[in-house]
Write a structure and sequence with these properties.
Oligomer: single chain
Radius of gyration: 19 Å
Shape: elongated
CATH topology of the largest domain: Lipocalin
Helix content: 25-40%
Strand content: 25-35%
CATH superfamily of the largest domain: Calycin beta-barrel core domain
CATH architecture of the largest domain: Beta Barrel
Largest sheet: 11 strands, antiparallel
CATH class of the largest domain: Mainly Beta
Strand order of the largest sheet: 5-7-8-9-10-11-1-2-3-4-6
Mean pLDDT: 74
Distance between the termini: 35 Å
Structural class: alpha+beta
Amino acid sequence: MPANHSMPGLSASLTERELEILRLLAAGHTVKTIAARLDNSETAINERLRSARRKTGVGSSRELARLLDAPENCDKKIDLSSAPPVGKDREQIAAMGARGSKGMIAMLITIPLAAAGLIFAAAPSAEQAAAPAAAASAASAPLPLAGSWSLDTSQMPVSERPQRVTIAFDAAPDGKWKTRVEIVAPDGSSRYSESTAALDGVAVPITGNMDFIDSVALRQPAPDTLVMTLGKAGARVSTRVYTVAKDRRSMTETIVWSGNSREKLETTHFNRMD
């Protein structure tokens, strides 16, 4: 994977060796062939993969490799065989007109994003120590994900285009993040969901009337990146990676579906409202 990969938030926390192993995994190698190629043991390769999953919060090594290699592999099949398909809930989503339309899927599946804690800066250099005012200014800078976002529906079929989809993030005093999502469908019906979660990867319940999901687990490998796992009845529905643009005015959502029914990554886009 090149150094200027389009998803630096995920790769930033990984070592060069971890990235090399994931690149080989994305190319189709197995742990055994990677170990032979790098003149290392399978145990050592597996340990590197476990470390990469722990750092990024992505539950599957192949899924992480595909996410990091998304621009080149968006038309290849995503290997999520380790996660059981959610049959009944998939049918429910399909009945609501979601299946077959990337835009409608985003409208119906998008749920509260949440994140916890303050973003801590790296240890200050000597220059930073000599300039406490500058350090204080950096620490108080707005968090990239904080605020209100609106789904860009311009690419959706007019007949399926929702009236609006909004997501609001609010950092709570206890270090957790409160999030509320509202979806107003084309017919005017409304759905909402709320959650309060930390960035520890532990699933928390979602409240509201989006009954096709009931939990969310979060990790944040970089200040501008959020990895979210959505679940229903203990089974994984999808993994989503949210990446905020440098100007903090837009946000990209990359979706990897669990199960084997979908063969490419999907993306949607949000614009900041405030």
